[in-house]
Design a protein that fits this description.
This is Peptidase. InterPro entries: Zincin_1, Zincin_1_sf. By secondary structure, the chain is an alpha+beta fold. It is built from five helices and three strands; from the N terminus they run H-H-E-E-E-H-H-H. Helices cover 37% and strands 10% of the residues. A three-stranded mixed beta sheet has the order 1-3-2. The termini are far apart.
Length: 145
């Protein structure tokens, strides 16, 4: 009886030249996609803000989307939208949405992207609570979002 290759202990790669080996070493971290790294940066900034302002951050839902909606909201005059905040209404909690592609396009450097994410989150939290961004984060750079 012929056994399929995946049931045998050692089997050849698809070209028949050698045994299959893992793509990544045991001690190496797995390859991260750009969207995965962006999500990690957003999560770390949310954790940082939650440690400083737990009462402000806890009731807010955060989301990351690839691109903003094609039809801008009537009150938006900006050409590039990198984030939105939606106030709480009728049982729906307040939400802050960051758009990954515009941020990555305008800030290709890893460090610049972290600053842009931080500034966007702080600016949107300030919009939700009617505060100045400097009250939430004294290091806020004031880039217009």
């Amino acid at each position: 009886m012929v056994r399929p290759p995946w049931q045998s202990h050692i089997y050849r790669n698809r070209h028949g030249r050698g045994t299959r080996t893992p793509t990544f070493g045991v001690r190496l971290p797995r390859y991260r996609t750009s969207s995965g790294m962006f999500d990690d940066m957003v999560a770390s900034q949310i954790r940082r803000l939650a440690q400083a302002w737990p009462k402000l951050v806890e009731p807010v839902q955060f989301a990351v989307e690839d691109v903003p909606p094609s039809e801008p909201v009537p009150w938006e005059s900006r050409r590039v939208v990198i984030s939105h905040c939606f106030p709480a209404e009728l049982g729906i909690p307040a939400r802050i949405v960051l758009y990954r592609m515009p941020i990555q396009t305008h800030h290709p450097n890893y460090a610049e992207m972290q600053w842009a994410i931080r500034d966007a989150l702080v600016a949107r939290l300030a919009d939700l609570y009617g505060r100045r961004p400097e009250e939430i984060d004294p290091d806020w750079t004031g880039i217009d979002f």
